[in-house]
C-alpha cells in the first residue's frame, strides 16, 4: 500500500499527512485515490477534529507536472483524476468535523485547494503561495476557483490566478488566506493546539458551524436558514449541549457582587 498520504487517528484526533516530500508533495495519479480515501477515514464517526499537514520542506506543489508530462496521460485522464481528488475535497468541506492545516514552505496550484479544505490555517513565516496554473497552460482545479475567492474575495483571487504573483506569509495573512503566521518551529504545535481546543470543548458544534459556513455560499438564503434551524435544534438535543447550556444558565443567574 502506498504511503503517499498517511492517516492516523488517536482519541478522536485524525491526522492526514501529505507524504511525498521528494516531489514537494505534488499530487500524482495514485495519490488522488489516497486523498479521497484519507478524507473519508478522517471524517468518519468518532473523529472530532482533523490536522492536515505535510512532510518535508513544502506543503504541496499542486499537481505532479512531471507525472503528467511523462505518463502518456490524456486530458480525459486528468479529468478523471480531478474528479477523484474533488471527492476528497468535498468530503472535508462538507463534513461536520473541523479541520486545521499546518502549512510550511511552498503552496502552489492545486495545493491551494487542498490547503483551503481546512477551516483554520496555521502557516510558517517562510510559507509562499502561488497559482502557476496559467504559466503551464492549465486552469484551476481542486476547488481553487471556488475556495480561493471564498477565502480572499474574487478580485484578489483573480490577481493571484492572472498574474505571476507569489504571496508571502505576511501577505497571505493580510489577505485572509491564512488564519495565523508563526515561526516554522511552532507550526505543528500551534496546529495541534487549535485541534485540541476543539476536542476539549464543543467540537461537534464547531464542526457544524464550519459546515454551515462552508456550504452556505452554494445555496439560497432560505435553504441556509432551514439548515441552521435544523442544526441548532439537533444540537440542543445532545447531552453535551444540554450540559453546557445548563452550566451557562446557572452561571448567568448568579447574583453579581
UniProtKB/TrEMBL annotation:
Gene3D superfamilies: 2-enoyl-CoA Hydratase, Chain A, domain 1 (3.90.226.10). Pfam families: ECH_1. This is Enoyl-CoA hydratase/isomerase family protein. It comes from the Bacteria. CDD domains: crotonase-like. Belongs to the enoyl-CoA hydratase/isomerase family. InterPro entries: ClpP/crotonase-like_dom_sf, Enoyl-CoA_hyd/isom_CS, Enoyl-CoA_hydra/iso. The keyword RNA-binding does not apply. GO terms for molecular function: isomerase activity. PANTHER family: 1,2-EPOXYPHENYLACETYL-COA ISOMERASE, ENOYL-COA HYDRATASE-RELATED. PROSITE patterns: ENOYL_COA_HYDRATASE (PS00166). It comes from Microbacterium lushaniae. Keywords: Isomerase. Transmembrane segments: none annotated. The keyword Mitochondrion does not apply. One of its GO terms (biological process) is fatty acid beta-oxidation.
Amino acid at each position: 500500500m502506498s504511503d503517499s498520504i498517511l492517516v492516523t487517528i488517536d482519541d478522536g484526533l485524525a491526522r492526514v499527512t501529505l507524504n511525498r516530500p521528494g516531489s514537494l508533495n505534488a499530487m500524482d495519479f495514485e495519490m488522488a485515490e489516497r486523498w479521497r480515501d484519507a478524507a473519508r477515514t478522517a471524517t468518519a464517526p468518532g473523529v472530532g477534529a482533523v490536522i492536515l499537514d505535510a512532510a518535508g520542506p513544502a506543503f504541496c506543489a499542486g499537481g505532479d507536472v512531471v507525472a503528467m508530462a511523462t505518463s502518456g496521460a490524456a486530458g480525459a485522464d486528468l479529468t478523471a483524476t480531478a474528479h477523484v481528488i474533488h471527492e476528497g475535497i468535498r468530503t472535508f468541506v462538507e463534513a461536520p468535523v473541523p479541520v486545521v492545516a499546518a502549512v510550511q514552505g511552498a503552496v502552489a496550484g492545486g495545493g491551494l485547494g487542498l490547503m483551503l479544505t481546512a477551516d483554520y490555517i496555521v502557516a510558517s513565516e517562510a510559507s509562499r503561495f502561488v497559482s502557476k496554473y496559467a504559466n503551464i497552460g492549465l486552469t484551476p482545479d481542486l476547488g481553487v476557483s471556488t475556495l480561493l475567492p471564498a477565502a480572499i474575495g474574487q478580485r484578489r483571487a483573480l490577481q493571484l490566478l492572472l498574474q505571476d504573483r507569489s504571496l508571502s506569509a505576511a501577505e497571505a495573512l493580510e489577505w485572509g488566506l491564512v488564519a495565523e503566521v508563526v515561526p516554522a518551529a511552532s507550526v505543528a504545535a500551534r496546529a495541534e493546539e487549535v485541534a485540541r481546543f476543539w476536542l476539549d470543548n464543543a467540537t461537534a458544534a464547531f464542526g457544524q458551524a464550519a459546515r454551515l459556513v462552508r456550504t452556505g455560499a452554494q445555496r439560497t438564503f432560505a435553504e441556509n436558514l432551514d439548515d441552521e434551524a435544523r442544526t441548532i435544534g439537533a444540537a440542543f438535543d445532545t447531552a453535551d449541549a444540554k450540559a453546557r447550556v445548563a452550566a451557562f444558565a446557572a452561571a448567568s443567574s448568579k447574583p453579581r457582587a
